[in-house]
What we know:
This protein is mainly alpha-helical. The chain is 69% helix and 0% strand. The chain has 2 domains: 2-80 and 256-367, no CATH class; 92-251 and 395-412, no CATH class.
Amino acid sequence: xxxxxxxxxxxxxxxxxxxxxxxxxxxxxxxxxxxxxxxxxxxxxxxxxxxxxxxxxxxxxxxxxxxxxxxxxxxxxxxxxxxxxxxxxxxxxxxxxxxxxxxxxxxxxxxxxxxxxxxxxxxxxxxxxxxxxxxxxxxxxxxxxxxxxxxxxxxxxxxxxxxxxxxxxxxxxxxxxxxxxxxxxxxxxxxxxxxxxxxxxxxxxxxxxxxxxxxxxxxxxxxxxxxxxxxxxxxxxxxxxxxxxxxxxxxxxxxxxxxxxxxxxxxxxxxxxxxxxxxxxxxxxxxxxxxxxxxxxxxxxxxxxxxxxxxxxxxxxxxxxxxxxxxxxxxxxxxxxxxxxxxxxxxxxxxxxxxxxxxxxxxxxxxxxxxxxxxxxxxxxxxxxxxxxxxxxxxxxxxxxxxxxxxxxxxxxx
Length: 414
């Protein structure tokens, strides 16, 4: 069944690759499923590795059928949707003011990162848990720490577009350096990967050279593996080499099959065993930046509910007295999030909305070319991450590139 998905996705992706004038984001969504579902499943089965949780063939068949049904619904609504001609009209003065505010926040992020690194001491800089604990003071507003990646990507885009001036070289060095320091202080390998990967994505869409994309993803896996052996605390003590670290990352960080099967095995028509209140995970995402003292009804994220009830029913070492004691989460795919939030109804709604979202994102991508560096990548990640995760990581970067793209368009049209 997964072979069907590979052939289906490859057809859309390769045919789109040849078309340099447009981007079919549906093919990138399918590429995400191949990366997060098919690839890990195939490698784990072929080399006789173990899934964290394995399930019966019946559950796996349900999973394959659900993916095929969901992809069909997404495709129908993606093709039925009309392309929206987005033309955001903001005053140049307003955009420049926003840009200055964001640059100030980038400077704050850099100083905040330097202070945290110095305060924890050299002996603790390889402990990502300690690094992450230092940024908890910012709460959900820690998203400002992603802004430097947006500026770093922008100046690399200018270089790719032909700007080889000294000013741009200095800007590239300065903002890439800031982005690296801030990324390191967050203890997140995702940030370190995005710094080189986003410019590579933009170059790929400019040249449509598939080798560039392949080298980029291979480099990302190497960075992940090295990071895991040196900075990821749950793997540091295992003394793994890079190959074994890559295997652990594949099984633990990339594979989305076992959580998907777990959600399917515990779902009903409108409810799921892993979430007490239907759609609470989505409500939490909508009110992420509103303090709980005001939005007392927002509940908890889908990942938090998953960990809490895994502790109640499957993993005794994860068990806590109250869901409010959970301060970590298991990474879930978008389709798993939908099933946990609303059962079969949630799955159907997700598929319809995803088809519409892909068309909206495609329209933005056509109008604002700088977003080619991130929006197709974001679509790939819909298959591997929840809306909450994507919101807090990628929206700040998109905002920076959108503002700067509009400013450059206005300057060009003068």
